[in-house]
Design a protein that fits this description.
This protein is about 25% helix and about 25% strand. It has about 550 residues and is an alpha/beta fold. The strands form four sheets. The chain has a nine-stranded mixed beta sheet. The protein binds zinc ion (ZN). The site of zinc ion has 4 residues, from loops.
Length: about 550
């Protein structure tokens, strides 16, 4: 305690020579060092303007409450202090934005989508963030980097809870700028507690980094130009709940709806505009689409928000799956009779990047039971992927080229099928992937199965080639995924989305919702026109 007190004592500049000041670096977690920063930057200026002090914090996950899986603290791969800069290339040492503030990164954690976060993991991560924030106060700004679809066991509106607890520490005057995934949820409480807010404008999220940079730039601009908090924040709840696979911005109608966002945001008097699709696989009142617009021109803020909300609502009947869909057997039949290869099939119900457990065996069992794939020279099929730590142990013992037999999957989610028996030849063993840890390819007939130590999404070509697999030469590639990520999309000769069972079932009508607001499109037929009038979110009291 005593040591902390000594470090925190203010330094009087008259005791320090200019030479000493010049040599200071621009970043330090130590508050007294930060004090030097601004004079080092502004030397020669008799009345220097202090650099703003901006903290960085956030947790990102989308977690399905319809999956029996639970997410622990380790899954967030939390970064602390200066290590956090590596997540933001636009804040690299020589970047223009880095020199515009004294940055105080605290804790940023990102997890693969999964089941609900345990209360213990959430409390631990939140408390570590709050402790770190307390240490380096005060702040002019805070960049809050979240996904927005975190479900926590026993907590309602987790991101709303998190930001409220941050406010209790840093106070209501600090400007908070939040960036989110468009599949996140914006509760009224989150809208109240953040000053600036934005989200991605593309799905798949090719603009993720650009969005984070925009959130940081808006924050710096508002501090720098002295305007501070926006005069108006408009919030509109839209009673629509759709899976991301029906709202890809690659295709209509979401393409046109989202194309209107950037021009709307660049109008005079508007700071930012955003449309959230929301997250379909959790059952809370906040799960629905939202539009928010921030700015200083009341009339423009309100009318822009209403126009965007109406566009989203009016397009509702056009939202459909990004690829033709079918049952698994329909998809396999089409792939086997097609002349187009590689033929991709999304095993969508257990998509780990939407929150599926990633270990549902139902699809793999169906594939292994098909006679077409029984012999080595049958149609080649890559299956990505199934976790099987015990089978991995056997494969390592058998070595590459050896025979292996054992069970995989259905440890977390055994609701649709039990663990699958895999008996085949070990083709490769790879170590060191951050998510999978160990990956093994086992060939069974003409099927190459990727077995992992821990679950991992397969989104990139290199995820396959590093295991000695060539998806471009494979007849069929089945991936636990929803819409194809860009590299897979670019290499597909054809593609079907299989409506398979799992924690992120694409058929929302099969999900047992109890707590979302009703009526909700498309679950409730013949619903009345909703009220899409913008509500202005009041400023927090000082
Ligand atoms: Zn998303």
């Amino acid at each position: 305690m005593l040591v902390c007190f000594v470090i925190a004592r203010p330094i009087h500049l008259k005791n320090i020579s200019l030479d000493k000041i010049k040599n200071r670096v621009t970043y330090s977690l130590n508050p007294k060092e930060n004090h030097f920063d601004f004079y080092a930057k502004k030397e020669g200026n008799l009345q220097p303007k202090p650099l703003p002090r901006i903290a960085i914090a956030g947790l990102g996950i989308e977690s399905s409450t319809f999956s029996p899986a639970l997410t622990n603290e380790e899954a967030f791969h939390a970064k602390y202090g200066a290590a956090i800069f590596s997540s933001y290339p636009f804040l690299s040492v020589d970047s223009p934005l880095r020199s515009k503030a004294v940055w105080i990164p605290t804790l940023v954690g990102k997890s693969l989508p999964g089941g609900a976060v345990t209360r213990e993991a959430y409390e631990s991560l939140v408390n570590k963030t709050l402790d770190s924030l307390k240490k380096y106060m005060p702040y002019d700004g805070l960049y809050f980097d979240i996904h927005g679809a975190m479900s926590v066991v026993g907590i309602e509106d987790a991101e709303g809870d998190f930001i409220t607890r941050i406010r209790k520490v840093i106070g209501n005057e600090t400007l908070i700028s939040t960036s989110m995934d468009l599949h996140g949820n914006v509760s009224w409480r989150l809208a109240e507690n953040t000053d600036l807010i934005t989200c991605y404008r593309m799905a798949p999220h090719e603009d993720a980094m650009e969005t984070k940079q925009r959130a940081v730039k808006n924050l710096l601009d508002r501090i720098d130009n002295g305007k501070g908090k926006p005069a108006y924040k408009a919030w509109i709840s839209i009673p629509i709940l759709l899976p991301g696979e029906k709202t890809s911005t690659r295709i209509e109608p979401a393409k046109t709806v989202y194309q209107a966002v950037a021009p709307a945001a660049s109008q005079q008097g508007i700071i930012d505009a955003a449309i959230w699709v929301g997250y379909a696989w959790a059952d809370e009142p906040r799960n629905h689409a939202v539009v928010m617009v921030t700015g200083d021109d009341k009339q423009k803020v309100v009318s822009t928000a209403q126009q965007l909300a109406e566009r989203f609502w009016n397009a509702r009947s056009g939202y459909s799956f990004v690829a033709p869909t079918g049952t698994l057997s329909e998809c396999l039949h089409k792939a086997l009779t097609s002349t187009k290869h590689p033929f991709f099939i999304s095993d969508s119900g257990d998509n780990p990047t939407a929150g599926g457990a990633g270990d549902v065996t139902w699809t793999l069992k169906e594939i292994l039971a098909r006679t077409e794939f029984k012999s080595d020279n049958g149609p080649s099929l890559i299956y990505a992927s199934i976790p099987g730590p015990d089978l991995i142990k056997n494969a390592i013992a058998a070595k590459v080229g050896g025979q292996v037999k054992g069970y995989a999957g259905a440890v977390v989610d055994a609701r649709y099928a039990p663990p699958v028996l895999i008996s085949g030849t070990v083709e490769s063993i790879e170590y060191g992937d951050i998510n999978a840890e160990v990956e093994v390819v086992i060939r069974v007939g003409s099927v190459h199965i990727i077995v992992t130590q821990k679950r991992k999404p397969y989104h990139k070509e290199v995820d396959f080639t590093r295991l000695g697999l060539n998806p471009r030469k494979s007849d069929i590639v089945v991936v636990k995924i929803g819409y194809l990520e860009p590299e897979l999309y670019a290499m597909r000769a054809d593609w079907l989305l299989a409506l398979t069972p799992g924690g992120v079932d694409q058929n929302l009508e099969r999900l047992p919702y109890k707590r979302i607001q009703r009526p909700m499109f498309p679950l409730d037929k013949n619903m009345k026109e909703p009220d899409l009038t913008a509500r202005l979110v009041p400023s927090l009291k000082k």
